[in-house]
Amino acid sequence: MIRLEHVSKSYKTSTRPALDDVSVHVDKGEFVFLIGPSGSGKSTFLRLLLREETPSKGTVHVADYNVGKLSRRRVPRLRQRIGCVFQDFRLLVNKTVAENVAFALEVIGKPRHTIRKVVPEVLELVGLDGKADRLPNELSGGEQQRVAIARAFVNRPLLLLADEPTGNLDPDTSQDIMLLLERINRTGTTVLMATHDHSIVDAMRRRVVELHLGKVIRDDARGVYGVGR
Ligand code: ADP
Ligand code: ADP
Questions:
Q1: Domain range annotation of the chain
Q2: Is 46 in contact with 163 (CB distance < 8 Å)?
Q3: Which terminal residue of the chain, N or C, has fewer Cβ atoms less than 10 Å from its own Cβ?
Q4: Which ligand is nearest to the CA of 41?
Q5: How close is the Cα of 116 to the center of ligand 2, in Å?
């Protein structure tokens, strides 16, 4: 699903590479934590998958896409296959819960009858069936993140990228969000989650890829956040 081969990324304004000879393979259906201190290259890793950046060296594949070589007109199609969830939710504040989710389908031209059918289904999946007509600011942080996950997932992406999705949530709410991401993972969606949240990584015992100064320093099948630290 994801294949980085000897990927380096150097930004023009930076002295050291943000990623330095990184090779990582992720199979379809895996759940992977991407960890490392601030500045270690996690965001760069995610941006390369979305073709928000191109590699300076090496190759990036997502599904059948050679992401670094993709022509400009094919980039939207790649991004349609990737759902994204962020720490700050990024909902449309003037749209209801249902409209936020529907909008993700409208912009890719899904027919109205499909939207009417799948929006309630995905809201039920994330546990928000009663909240379709609420505005984001009428919801708790955890509920807002559920909306964001519904929106990211409604198009059944191959890959879900989550960048610190629990960063603004209390521990109990974070756990609920992780149960939801696990549920989505069980549908076959590959999940890659960048996080600083020790307790979540330690509780889940999933694959952990650790970056430090742009290099992969650890790749454990059932990892914890810190080994011997
Ligand atoms: P993380 O997400 O782990 O904090 P980043 O990928 O954001 O790491 O950053 C890795 C390194 O690349 C850092 O040294 C950072 O300063 C640098 N960097 C990130 N984005 C840019 C950019 N747009 N321009 C220049 N340097 C950048
Ligand atoms: P319209 O009135 O033109 O249908 P809306 O802004 O009411 O537009 O809704 C936009 C989309 O959001 C619609 O296609 C609809 O399927 C979906 N939607 C809106 N409200 C709900 C809801 N309560 N439950 C399910 N889907 C909804």
A1: 1-81+159-221, 91-156
A2: yes
A3: C
A4: 1
A5: 7
Rounded to the nearest angstrom, the distance between the alpha carbon of 7 and the centre of ligand 1 is: 15
pLDDT at 14: 87
Half-sphere exposure of 147 (CA within 13 A, CB side): 30
Atom of ligand 1 nearest to the CA of 44: 6
Residues 1-81+159-221: name the CATH superfamily. P-loop containing nucleotide triphosphate hydrolases (3.40.50.300)
d(Cα 78, Cα 221) in Å, to the nearest integer? 27
Distance CA 188, CA 50 (A): 20
Mean pLDDT, range 134-148, rounded to an integer:
98
* 122 alpha carbon, closest ligand: 2
Cα(105) to ligand 1 centroid in Å equals: 31
Q: How far apart are CA 185 and CA 208, in angstroms?
A: 16
17's CB contacts (< 8 A; 6+ apart) are 8, 9, 10, 56, 214
> What count of other Cβ atoms lies within 10 Å of the Cβ of residue 94?
10
pLDDT digits (tens, 9 = 90+) for 76-117: 999 999 999 999 999 999 999 999 999 999 999 999 999 999
Which tens digits make up the pLDDT trace of 177-222? 999 999 999 999 999 999 999 999 999 999 999 999 999 999 999 9
